[in-house]
Structure formats: C-alpha cells, structure tokens
C-alpha cells in the first residue's frame, strides 16, 4: 500500500508540473488553453469559471495528463465565435517550440529545485572504506582488501561510497575496467584493476554488490532502533529496543549478520529469538520479498539502533553555500542526464539489454522503498524520476514533446507545416513505438515480480 501511495503522489506531482509548464508557456504566448487535465479516463472533478476560461479536470488514471489548446484545425472543439489569433497553430514557430519544450523544462526545473534543496542542507555520505569482500568475486580477484580506503578511481579522487558506486556504474555501462587506488590503515598505497567489463548481467544500481564489494560499517549489536509502520516487523510484534539473539537457532552477533540472514531468506519462515528488557521471546515470521538489482531479497521493515558516535569515523559531511549547492545540483543533473542518454544509446545499439526498461510496478516499488527510507530519499527519487520523464519526453518520437519539436524544426526549414498525411503517419509510428516500449516495460515487471 505504501508503494502504491508513494507512486501515485510522485507521478501526480511530476505530471502536474510537466503539464503546468506547457500551460504557463501557452498563456505567456497568448494562447487560449481549453482544458488542463491530470490523469486519464473518467473525470473525478471538473471546474470551469466561465465558458471562455480553462476547464480544469482530475481523472481516475494517474498515469499522465494533457493540456488542450485552441487550434484552428479543430473547429468542432470550440464555438464559432472565437479569437483565432489565440490558436496554437497560428503562433510563430519559436512560440510553438517554447510551449512544447516547456513541459520537459518544468520537470528539469523541479529536479534542480529538489537537488538544490537537499544539497543545501548538507550532504552526508559514507567514507569509501571496503567492507567484507565476497570470495571469488571480481573485487577479490583484483586483491581489494577489507578495511582499506578507496582514495581514487581512474585518477579521480573520491570522498564517499556513493561517489564510488556512481563511478563504478558508469564504467560498467561503458564496459570499462576501473583503476582503483587504495590506502591501508598503515598509509601504504596500492593500485588495483577492477575489470567491470567482465561483470555479467545488465548494468544496475547493484554494481558494487555484484562486483563483490561492500561498504565497511561499524559493528553494532542487533538492536532494533525503528520499526516501519505496516511492515512485517510491526505485524510480528517486534518493537524498538528489541535485541535479536538467534535466527533459526543460529546466534546473531551483530546487526549486519542479522540483515544478511533476512535478505537471504525472502518469503522463507524465520524463527527469531529476541530479548525485550529482561524477558526472552520467540516469534515466527516471513520476510517480505522485494526486488533489488534484479534479485529477490527479504525485508522486515526494521532499522538498526545506531548511535551517531558510532558512525562519525565512517561519515563524510559536506556543507555548501546556496550558490555552491546550485552548482552541485546542476552537476548532479548533468551526470544523470548523460548516464540516461548513454544507457538509451546502448539499448538502441544492442550493447545493453532492454531488461533495464522499468514499468509502473518497478517504479512503484522504488517509490515505496525510497519513501520508507524517509522524506529526503523520496525527494531524491522524485528528482531522478523527473529527469527521466524530461529526457524521455524530449526523444524525437512522434506524439512525444521531442517529436513535436522535430515537426516544428521541419516546419522552420520548409517554411510551412508538414502535410497532414505525414503527421498522420508519424502519429501511428509514434504510438507503435510507445506501445512497444510499454509492452517491454510490463513484460520486464512481470518477469521480475512474478517469474523472477
């Protein structure tokens, strides 16, 4: 339920911002807007101040929206007594291109505001200390060792584990090896070559895990610090302060060991022994099955009780001025856009699998997971999704904003609009491409969540 609600809120915000961008641009050019709709299907709500004003509509299916403008080519859509100078098709090419571009631009602006707001509060990251290395993994073969600090990647200094993960992901997509510079506790510096081009599977956010790398965390007792409402942990009766002692008769020494057991047993019964105050209890529960990096893992919905002092040696906290935060936000957006375009290009050329395309189920799951982590991760997810929507809408596919921009560019070159026959063919072609993409997205969701 959390995933569905988080998904609806995120999509609702992004669609509203996108369509409002079109609306404001149209009004700034003197274009009359007939309808502003959020959602598709049967309307839930309608409002129109007077016959000459915009009709505002809210519909049942929250997967899109539209802005309908006055157009002299659609005489039946309005009364006979209208001012056709307010029609979209009667505007200059520059005005029409601005109205079309304004939707994706609004999404990019939203992403900038989200990132700027988050960064201005200060970025908290984990230092790139290497945790336990998976035996036989690429990291083990590259002789990366637990406890060493990653200093740079391909000559570029890194300060946080998040920066390390992003650089690794970019190189995995590019099928490149990474030159890793590490420093030991004694100050010795070592070079390692991590051949990510040999990493199997499709590029995703789990690159570190698949390479056999984990971040080093302080060893803390398996004491629950927070229980997420509605989670398996809450329904099973676990509470803040409970100390996990055993799982399936196996002694649990620390929180990381407990998490590893839970993640490794999705949907499998676990017998948990725990201590609350001076009393011992036993319960049986089934960890929720969730998808992460194309794999099924277990989740209880409980967080560790960790004192801030325990994390201090492992954390990096960076503060920015308002202008510095703005520049950092722009840089973050640039990296995300470049990565998205790179992935799209590789899918078109066949270098990357179409399995990377996510449907509404995957997006909803990601929305719910980020929302469960707190408001900041959820805002970050909205920013990322907003960039994705902007980039996808600007692709030169008919029926998308990018396709309409292509039409107007052709009109600029020809000196007149494209023939209706060409527009009709483009419409069918665009719908066919979108239909194929939706089929692939839904197929990927079904494969991930039903077939596995």
Radius of gyration: 26 Å
Q: What is the general shape? A: globular
The helix tally amounts to: 13
Class based on secondary structure composition and strand pairing: alpha+beta
The beta-strand count equals: 16
Percent strand equals: 15-25%
Please provide the ordered H/E string of secondary-structure elements. HEEHEHEEHEEHEHEEHEEEEEHEHHHHH
Report how far the terminal alpha carbons are from each other. 21 Å
In percent, how helical is the residue content? 40-55%
Low-confidence stretches: none
User: Main beta sheet, described?
Assistant: 4 strands, antiparallel
Helix-strand layout with pairing:
Layout: H1 2-28, E1 33-47, E2 55-69, H2 93-120, E3 123-126, H3 138-141, E4 149-153, E5 156-157, H4 161-173, E6 178-183, E7 189-194, H5 207-211, E8 224-227, H6 232-235, E9 243-247, E10 250-251, H7 255-263, E11 270-276, E12 279-285, E13 288-292, E14 295-299, E15 302-304, H8 308-311, E16 315-318, H9 322-349, H10 360-373, H11 375-393, H12 401-414, H13 420-451
Antiparallel strand pairs: 1-2, 3-16, 4-5, 4-6, 6-7, 8-15, 9-10, 9-11, 11-12, 13-14
Helix pairs in contact: 1-2, 1-10, 2-9, 2-11, 2-12, 9-11, 10-11
Provide a descriptive summary of the structure in words.
- The chain is 44% helix and 21% strand.
- The protein has 13 helices and 16 strands.
- The strands form six sheets. It has a four-stranded antiparallel beta sheet with strand order 5-4-6-7. It has a four-stranded antiparallel beta sheet with strand order 10-9-11-12, with helices on one face.
- A hairpin with a 2-residue loop joins strand 9 and strand 10.
- The longest helix has 32 residues, at 420-451.
- The model has no long low-confidence stretch (mean pLDDT 84).
């Amino acid at each position: 339920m959390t995933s569905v609600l988080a998904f609806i809120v995120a999509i609702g915000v992004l669609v509203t911002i996108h369509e409002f961008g079109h609306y404001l641009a149209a009004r700034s050019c003197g274009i009359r807007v007939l309808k502003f709709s959020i959602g598709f299907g049967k309307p839930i709500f309608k409002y129109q101040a007077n016959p000459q004003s915009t009709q505002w509509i809210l519909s049942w299916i929250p997967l899109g929206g539209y802005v309908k403008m006055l157009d002299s080519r659609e005489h039946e859509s309005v009364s006979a007594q209208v001012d056709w100078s307010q029609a979209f098709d009667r505007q200059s090419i520059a005005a029409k291109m601005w109205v079309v571009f304004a939707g994706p631009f609004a999404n990019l602006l939203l992403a900038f505001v989200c990132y700027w707001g988050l960064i201005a509060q200060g970025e908290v990251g984990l230092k790139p200390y290497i945790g336990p290395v998976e035996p036989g993994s690429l990291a083990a073969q590259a002789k990366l060792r637990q406890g060493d600090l990653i200093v740079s990647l391909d000559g570029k200094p890194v300060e946080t584990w998040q920066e390390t993960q992003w650089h690794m992901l970019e190189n995995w997509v590019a099928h490149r090896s990474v030159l890793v510079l590490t420093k030991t506790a004694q100050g010795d510096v070592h070079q390692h070559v991590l051949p990510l081009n040999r990493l199997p599977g499709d590029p995703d956010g789990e690159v570190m895990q698949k390479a056999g790398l984990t971040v080093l965390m302080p060893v803390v007792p398996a004491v629950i610090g927070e229980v997420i409402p509605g989670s398996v942990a809450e329904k099973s009766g676990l509470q803040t302060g409970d100390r996990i002692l055993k799982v399936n008769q196996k002694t649990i020494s620390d929180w990381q060991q407990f998490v590893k057991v839970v993640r490794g047993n999705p949907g499998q019964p676990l017998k948990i022994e725990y201590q609350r105050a001076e009393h011992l209890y036993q319960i049986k529960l089934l960890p929720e099955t969730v998808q992460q990096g194309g794999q099924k893992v277990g989740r209880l919905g409980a967080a560790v009780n960790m004192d801030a002092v325990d994390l201090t040696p492992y954390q990096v906290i960076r503060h920015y001025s308002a202008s510095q935060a703005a520049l950092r936000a722009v840089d973050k957006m640039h990296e995300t856009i470049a990565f998205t375009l790179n992935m799209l290009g590789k899918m078109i050329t066949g270098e990357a699998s179409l399995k990377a395309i996510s449907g509404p189920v995957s997006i909803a799951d990601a929305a719910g997971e980020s929302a469960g982590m707190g408001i900041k991760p959820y805002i970050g997810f909205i920013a990322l999704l907003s960039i994705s929507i902007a980039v996808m809408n600007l692709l030169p596919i008919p029926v998308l904003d990018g396709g309409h921009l292509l039409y107007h560019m052709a009109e600029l070159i020809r000196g007149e609009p494209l023939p209706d026959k060409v527009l009709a063919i483009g419409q069918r072609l665009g719908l066919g491409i979108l239909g194929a993409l939706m089929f692939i997205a839904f197929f990927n969701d079904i494969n991930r969540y039903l077939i596995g």
